[in-house]
Protein: Dual-specificity RNA methyltransferase RlmN
Organism: Fulvimarina uroteuthidis
Amino acid sequence: MSVSLDLADPKTRPVVEAPALHPVRAGGEDKPSLIGMSRDELGDALVNAGVPEKQRRMRTAQLWHWLYVRGVSDFSHMANVSKDLRARLAEDYTIERPEIVTEQISVDGTRKWVLRFPPRGAGRPVEIETVYIPEEGRGTLCVSSQVGCTLTCTFCHTGTQRLVRNLTSGEIVSQMLLARDRLGDFPDIDTPAGAIVPSAGRLISNVVLMGMGEPLYNFDNVVTALGVISDNEGLSMSRRRITLSTSGVVPEIVRAGEETGVMLAISLHAVNDELRNELVPINKKYPLDQLLDACRNYPGSSNARRITFEYVMLKDVNDSLEDAKNLVRMLQGIPAKINLIPFNPWPGSLYECSDWDQIERFADYVNQAGYASPIRTPRGRDIFAACGQLKSESERMRKSDRERMESARILELSGNGEA
Ligand code: SF4
C-alpha cells in the first residue's frame, strides 16, 4: 500500500491551518454524551428514555451502528429510529463532536487537532491534542487520555502542564470519531482533496494511547473507551492494533492487559534507576525491576505480540553503546521490541537529540541482538505534533504570554521598553 501524494511537493507545502467543520461551541455543555458508553450503559440510557426492556438489545445495536459505523453526530440522521425516540434522546443526551480549536497539517501530512471539551467540573473548558500520522501502509491515531499530566517526565512537553482532569471515555472515543470525520473515513464523507493518507485499507489502521496523559491513571475510562473502539460491530479496531503506552504504573499493568487485551508499550528511556528517576520520575515509586516483572507477566505477550519499549535518544545522556548493551541485557527473556525515538525538542527543553550516527550505531547494536528497532522518523515536528511535544494550545499561549510579559518587564527595567 502506498501513500497518496496528490499535493504539491510536501517539502515546500506550508503548514495548513484548516477551518473547523463542526459547531464552534463545545458539544453537550450540560448533557451527558452517548459516545463512549459501553453497550450496557447505552442500553440503560435507552430504557431511561422510554425504550421497553424487551427492545433494549435491538435498539442498542441500532444506535451503536449509527454512532460507530455510520458516524452520525446528529440524532436527526438516524433514519430508522422513531422521531419520538430521537427527540427524547436529544433532550437528555448529546452525540456532538468536540469543538475543533485548530487543525494543523504538517509538511509530512501529519495532522494535529487541538480539541476543546466542556469543563465537566474543571471550572473551564479544557483542551487536548490528537495527532494523525499517515505512513506507508498505515495510518496511526495518537490519542490523549488526560488533560495535562501529573507525571513530570523531563523530556516531555506535556509533563510541564499540570493535570486538569481525566478525559471521559466519550472524550477518548470522540477523538477517533472526529479524526474519521476529518479524514473522510465514514460513509458519506469524502477524504479532503490532497490529504496524505494510506492509498488503500483503513485510513486509521492503528490507535496508540501515547498522547497527553498517563492512561493507567485514568484506568476505568480508558478501559471503557478501548472496549468501544475495539467492538467488532462498531469502530472495529483490532486489539492487536491498539497500543497502550505507560510510563510504568506497575500495579495496573497486568490488570490493563487482562481487561483490555491490547498491546503494551513502556516509556522506558533509561537502563538504570538513577537516570530513569530523573527522566521518568515515576520510577522512584516503581523502579525498573518491578516494571520489568510486570512486563514479564503481561497477559498474552509472546514473540508474535511483543511489548514495545520506547527509548528517546538524548545526546550524551542515554545514547552510548554501553547503554545499548545494558538495554539488550535488561530485556532478555521479555518478548520485546525497541522503538528508538530521536528526541523532538520543544521550547525550554533541557535536552538535545543524539547525533544521527550515534542513533544508527545504537540501532545496529540492538537490531543485531534480535530486537526489531526501527528508528522512528520524526513526524509533525513543524506543528509540534511529534512524540513528547504535545501540550494544549491554551497552555502554550499562556506560557508564551508569560514569556512576552517577562521580556517586556526586562525591557522596561533596562529602559528600552516603549511607553
Ligand atoms: S511522557 Fe507521558 S506520563 Fe510522562 S509527562 Fe509526558 S504525558 Fe505524562
Summary: The two ends are 60 Å apart (CA to CA).
